[in-house]
Amino acid sequence: MSTYVISDIHGEYELFIQLLDKIRLKDSDTLYILGDVLDRGPHPVKTLLKLMEMPNAICMVGNHEFMALECLNIFMQEVTDDFLEKLDIKEFENYLEWLENGGQTTIDELCALDIATRKEIQEFLGELLVYEEIIVAGRDYVLVHAGIANFSPDTGLDEYGIHELVWSRPDYSIPYYEDRYVITGHTPTQLIKGNEKPGYIYKNKNHIAIDCGSYRPDGRLAAICLDTWEEFYAEKN
User: Fold this and answer.
1) Residues contacting 174, CB < 8 A, separation 6+
2) Which of 51, 62, 132, 137 has the highest count of CB atoms within 10 angstroms of its CB?
3) What's the pLDDT score for residue 15?
4) CB 126 within 8 A of CB 72
């Protein structure tokens, strides 16, 4: 029984399957996905449907799932060329923001599904965890998509707002907790200032950043085993 964490698959289905093969995930293992399964890459919905079939996968919400949820009611009907004309201004703004952030591949795959499957996806996304606290091999972890904005050691995780946990980037220069590790995705490790190994898992000051830019030309999809801290990577050929 081992515990693995992956984040920011972003529709890279082939990399995800390659990574599962590398970690040799067993039914007795637990796999946490820290959000951003959707958007950007070619097969976000195919990846999500795969995860929905995996009883040992625990999925969390990322900002891309959050954007999708704000728009999915639009797709609970047959989509026609003029469906945008029926949207109110807020729905239209949300839809445009989603498109600007790579939502087109998700939309394309959603539109190829029947309405019943779209509703199953909507229900699944609506039940995603915002954060999780776990203990593995004697170490305490906080799992969250983006970070903990406006962090205070006196603030409980349930007191933070959704935007503080799924949109804001962490401050990697300070440890949030002295006795807990915070594992995040959202920020590609290529963008972390002072990171000596951009594109690989970043560990520093009780932060573990695992978004290695799966959709980027210089990126890869990463997993970490919390029992051993062994790292696994899948890259495009």
Assistant:
1) 205
2) 62
3) 98
4) no
Q: What is the pLDDT of residue 91?
A: 83
CA 36 to chain centre: 3
48 vs 37, 61, 92, 188, 214, CA distance in Å?
Answer: 7, 12, 25, 21, 16
| The two structure tokens encoding residue 100 | 């600007």
Q: Is 0.85 topped by the overall pTM? A: yes
Distance between CA atoms of residues 134 and 34, nearest Å: 13
Residue 135: its H or E element: strand 131-136
176: tokens are 């949030």
Residue keyed to tokens 């220069």:
173
The upper half-sphere exposure of residue 172, i.e. CA atoms within 13 Å in the direction of its Cβ, equals 21
Residue 11, phi-psi category: left (phi > 0), alpha (psi -120 to 50), beta (remainder): left
* DSSP for residue 169: P
Report pLDDT for 176. 95
Q: What region, left, alpha or beta, does residue 141 occupy, with left being phi > 0 and alpha being psi -120 to 50 degrees? A: beta
Closest by CA position to 191, among listed 202, 179, 177: 202
